[in-house]
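Pilot study result, target chain (234 residues):
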Amino acid sequence: MLVTGAAGGIGGAIVRHLTRRGADVIAAGRTLSSLDAITAETGARALGFDLESEESIREAIEGLDLWGVVNCAGFGGEIATPQDTDISVFDKVIAVNARGALLVTKYAAREMIRRGRGGAIVNVSSQASLVALGGHISYGSSKAALDNITRVSALELGRHGIRVNSVNPTVVMTPMSAWYWGREEIEKPFLEQMPLGKWATEDDIAGPVVFLLSDEAGMITGVSLPIDGGYSSR
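Predicted structure:
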């Protein structure tokens, strides 16, 4: 299993869940040093590459024996309206969240097809692709693109026995996200609109990802699964 963004909170949780179940996990990140903690904790193998470089991705993935892939790496960008957005930030968010995931899928799928044993790909998207969230013009657009990459990849790769799905989490309240989502004027009205009324945890996201990778999800492909406490069902 290849997990990108393994040095992050959600990516690290996915690595932990997979290794606890006996999976052979390759934990990927931009630098090898950023992966020291998660590899020491779990025994996963480290792999470094730059999601903004096709050559870096190709060199890292070509020749790997892969069955499963989790595209978890992401870049949040900025909180901005369409009229105020910094287009250079928009370009970077798209480059990492959509283009980078597509490139990983491009080269990983080739290796999965070469092996001829099928497989599963899970893209970590966002509820921001399913509903409009204020200030999320760049991030939401990148994740909407990722959801379409999921659907088209599911269509194209199904003939090879490869399933492709997305999970679409709500906010995981980490120190990184608390600067915005932890503000009372933001947090209170948002949670009031969510049926479950609470933020997600990293394990809340990792569990469904592992399920979608498993044989128990053998007839599920091309879906975008909200993990958002019911927010997008409003």
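One observation from the pilot: DSSP finds eight helices and seven strands in the chain. A full batch analysis is planned for the follow-on phase.
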